[in-house]
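DNA-binding protein (Salmonella enterica), 149 aa
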Amino acid sequence: MKLAQRFCERLVVAQNIQIRRVEQLKARHIEGYIRERLAQGITKRSLQNEMAAVRCILKQAGRTKLVDGNRINNCSLGLSGASRSGTKRAITAEHYHYVLETARIKDPGLAVALELSRLMGLRSQEAVQSAQSLKTWEQALDRGETRLT
């Protein structure tokens, strides 16, 4: 939803288009927006993500003809061919241990969240919210389960 909100805000700034309802959005508005964002140096992969959100909202608003047409697909917008390979790398074990020890001193709860993130592959928000699952996890471990959900 945030992507869609940013899309609308940028549409107003980039093209001075005052859209009040989804029904008013035209393919030419989207095409112009994408041209502007490409000119700003935004990567194709980022724009593919934005367009996925825009198409989802258009579909929910009943604009399936626009979504299913050829004008706003990634290929037509010049967004095809972007790599889906991730560019982010995990921090080194040395840096992780330094941060973990610092967190243990300053905030033991943060340290536990860091460990959950690292050991269970949780995102930060998931690690923080995992307190709600602790009882369930404990019961699963007591039953001898090796996988926690």
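The mean pLDDT is 87. The CA atoms of residues 52 and 84 lie 14 Å apart. ok done for today
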